[in-house]
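User: I'm writing a short report section on ligand binding and want a predicted complex to refer to. Could you take this sequence and PMV and write out the structure as tokens? A short remark afterwards would be nice.
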Amino acid sequence: MASTVVDDEKTPLVPTAVSAPGKVLLAGGYLVLDRAYTGLVFGLNARIHAVIQPIPTGPGIVLNEISVKSPQFRHAVWNYGYRLAEREGGVKVTQLRVDADLALDRNPFIETTLSYVLSYITSVASPIIEPSSITIYADNDYYSTPADLTTATTNPTTTSPRFYNFNVPLSEAHKTGLGSSAALVTSITAALLSFYLPKSHFDLLPTSALASPSRRRLHNLAQAAHCAAQGKVGSGFDVASAVYGSSLYRRFSPSILSNHPEPGSPSFAPALVGLVEERAADPSSPAAITWDTEILQDAVKVPRGLRLVLCDVAGGSQTPGMVKQVLAWRAAQPAEADALWTELHAANQALAAELTALADAQPTGSLADDDGDEPAALRPLRAAFARIRASLRAMTRQTGVPIEPAAQTRLIDACEAVPGVVGGVVPGAGGYDAIALLIRDREDVVRALRELIAGWEFSGEEGVGGKVSMLGVREEMEGVRAEEARGYSL
Ligand SMILES: Nc1ncnc2c1ncn2[C@@H]1O[C@H](COP(=O)(O)OP(=O)(O)OP(=O)(O)O)[C@@H](O)[C@H]1O
Ligand SMILES: C[C@@](O)(CCOP(=O)(O)O)CC(=O)O
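Assistant: Sure. The structure tokens for the complex follow:
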């Protein structure tokens, strides 16, 4: 364990908690990788929470250690030592062994985030980082719930725990695809910045302000850390929605991140500050970087009385492989791809426009109100979903990649036939992972859908099969937010 003797004058650090939402890319999968197009992304009411607190030490001694744990999972403890690297290389973070006999179980998202955020903090504030411990809590819908937990929580004599103890190692948990890594990186980044930096430099309030410089720095830093941990520069819609919540999203130019130095390499720290604060790294470097991300919060709304529903399809798809194949096809067939991309983009825009128009036109009343037949106002929305699905099926046929495969077509068709279901799509990259539905927000509609899904035997063309389950999540407009640090426990 690394230790350093320092001055005993310290500013007291106070326990701090932050949460960031998961996401669903309702429309714009693949297209959003290209700045010419946008994605319609909704934040979800399933959040990842990070609670950070000081580790008490004896007078005059500072341990250079940050410990992170995720108590919902077995053996999910990661301890890190840190030190300033030479030649402005930032903070070097090294995982410490919890037990000499156990192999190191690395968590690249946590390790990379620590090295990015500590490098930034030591560059703009004190070079001394006091030790801390971080606890992660994930809302239950991020992972499929084992049957025994479901049974326990449906038993009327027990109350459902806010955060399940999944009682398996994280590597064995089945993710439901809500963007756990982006919400994790965003909440840890925001927690560290709030904890170590003075309010004058970083303040998460006010919660929604697009113009907030703190939120913008958080976005830039979390995107950089997430891409580095993933080992690739994706569109970043998941981190953007973790920070800003639901929006019509246009990605940043990939070149902003693709040439960034590695942690530990000379000048990593000033380059990172330049990237986060959008100023030239030093007087001799070229112009300042400006993130060209576009986040239109007002262009995304859900009309009163409607809600999103997500269903998890057991089995799942390998998204990275699908993305590679689709992009390779697009490069090989530019004319065909252009036509397809143009039509799908128009269909996606039409859905966003219909949702917003309907939300703005309904300042009172609710589309869930029961006055006999389904409101005629929902017809254009149905048409918008149908148009998107037609394009996604064309994409499936032309690329040969199972974006909306026949098994998903059958499932979405069946859901759309339930009265009160307005429309459905395969979200994100599509495939066998999930479906997203827009429904009238009524008990009877949810019940009918639940019954259909409970009895549904999913059987895909590629041997993918299993059960479908309805998640307990819905859309939420708000992005990252400060939480009350007291009161978190399993
Ligand atoms: N509760 C958690 N505690 C600690 N680390 C976590 C937790 N949840 C996720 N992670 C980290 O995030 C990784 C999963 O990230 P990945 O990008 O593969 O999934 P995702 O973001 O949920 O998926 P998708 O992009 O399909 O929505 C895990 O391997 C782990 O490193
Ligand atoms: C295919 C892509 O556009 C969306 C992938 O979304 P998801 O992980 O399936 O939710 C990739 C990306 O935007 O980075």
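A remark for your report: Confidence is low (pLDDT under 50) at residues 1-10. The chain has twelve helices and 17 strands.
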